[in-house]
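Sequence, please.
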């Protein structure tokens, strides 16, 4: 396969969808205008020794951790995550006492083989903490403030091709999906961001 001339940049159209008590995701809502998204693999490795040499390496992959930076704290997202509450006279920041699983959708621009495209992605089983805030006075120019959410992406179990049972590979392992990405030639690309995709294998 030839190497791909692919360059990614920008982030846009961020949405979220809360996972309900039935284990399904609700209708996606706009999260906020995005500033940046940073994802770092949360993975550790353990070397197994025998006769004084490494015989195998075991990986423990816990998904992604990172930061979602946005231009504003939107009430709908803050309420859904249990950080904001309606009170008499306004909205109140409250202590976060629960971790609300949800999916996060985003798009990035790219240049693929000289042509500009949009790449769409869903992150599964996400949680965020309270965003950090920092306000500074204007000096020679306006000082813009962004809000940074600490983000965890734990992933969902892949289902079989019927969507009924967990998919088990030929070694007896479950597969956890942290991110699903669609390109312009992917099936269902046009409506990819309208609902959280059901994670199904192409084979049973």
């Amino acid at each position: 396969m030839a190497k791909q001339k692919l360059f990614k940049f920008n982030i846009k159209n961020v949405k979220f969808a809360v996972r309900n008590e039935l284990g399904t995701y609700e209708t996606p809502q706009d999260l906020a205008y995005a500033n940046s998204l940073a994802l770092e693999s949360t993975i550790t490795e353990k070397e197994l020794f025998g006769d004084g040499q490494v015989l195998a390496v075991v990986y423990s992959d816990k998904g992604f951790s990172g930061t979602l930076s946005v231009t504003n704290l939107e009430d709908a997202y803050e309420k859904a995550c249990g950080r904001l509450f309606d009170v008499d006279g306004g909205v109140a920041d409250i202590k976060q006492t629960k971790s609300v699983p949800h999916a996060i959708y985003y798009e990035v621009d790219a240049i693929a083989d000289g042509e500009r495209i949009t790449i769409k992605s869903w992150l599964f089983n996400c949680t965020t903490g309270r965003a950090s805030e920092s306000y500074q006075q204007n000096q020679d120019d306006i000082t813009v403030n962004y809000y940074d959410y600490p983000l965890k992406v734990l992933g969902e179990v892949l289902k079989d091709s019927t969507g009924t049972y967990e998919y088990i590979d030929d070694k007896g392992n479950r597969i956890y999906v942290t991110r699903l990405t669609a390109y312009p030639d992917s099936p269902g690309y046009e409506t990819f961001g309208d609902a959280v995709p059901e994670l199904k294998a192409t084979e049973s």
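The CA atoms of residues 109 and 118 lie 5 Å apart.
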